[in-house]
Amino acid sequence: MEGAGRLTAAEHVLTVRRAGSDDIAQLARVHVRCWQETYRGMLSDAFLAAVDPAGRLRLWRHLLDRPNPVEAWVASDGGTVVGFAGARLLPAPGSPEGHPPPSAGDLELWGLYLLASHQGLGLGARLLTAAIGDNPASLWVAAANSRAIGFYRRFGFEPDGEQDVLADWENLAEIRMVRPARPGP
User: Of 33, 65, 89, 116, which has the most beta carbons under 10 Å away?
Assistant: First the structure.
């Protein structure tokens, strides 16, 4: 192993695949852990400690345990889920309201999370590609999450000036980023 707890891609079998109903319990746990890792320093420790895993379990059941599951992908390490990504078409429930439609069109990356232990191995890029390919798209990201903003910039996303505040999340500020259509040959 390299560094303090860091893995190399050669040390584990890292895969990205479509999420299914068999992934629900692992996705709920990983979702909570990713939030706690990602938002530490942006949200209070008390807020992060109070995140209800049962709520994430209900969400993932709703998303995946139905005849037409949502478009979601999981990253796994030897069969253990370590991250996920999902895309949807706008307008969609859960998207910030009261903003003009993004110039990138109606495809939105609604989430991309990866455990800190598995960042830097190419899984984030693979999840992004699985979820939206190289299509024009938009996403919302915490304004203070410079690491995520830098990641999305490497894939052609730029802030478009739209901002939102998540009141239920201790007034966490978000910005919208868009990736426009790429010019043809």
Answer: 33
Q: Is residue 152 within 8 Å of residue 140, measured between CB atoms?
A: no
Segment (H or E) for 38: helix 24-38
pLDDT, tens digit (0-9, with 9 covering 90-100), for 120-131: 999 999 999 999
Q: What is the pTM of this model?
A: 0.89
Q: Beta strands of the chain (E only): which ranges?
A: 14-18, 71-77, 80-89, 107-114, 137-142, 158-166, 172-179
**Tokens at 74, concatenated:** 């999981």
Q: Which residues contact 150 (CB under 8 A, 6 or more apart)?
A: none
Q: What SS3 state is found at 159?
A: strand
Burial of 31 (0-12, 13-18, 19+ CB in 10 A): buried
According to DSSP, residue 62 is labeled H
How far apart are the C-alpha atoms of 50 and 83, rounded to whole Å?
21
Residues contacting residue 164 through CB under 8 Å, at least 6 positions apart: 96, 99, 140, 173, 174, 175, 176
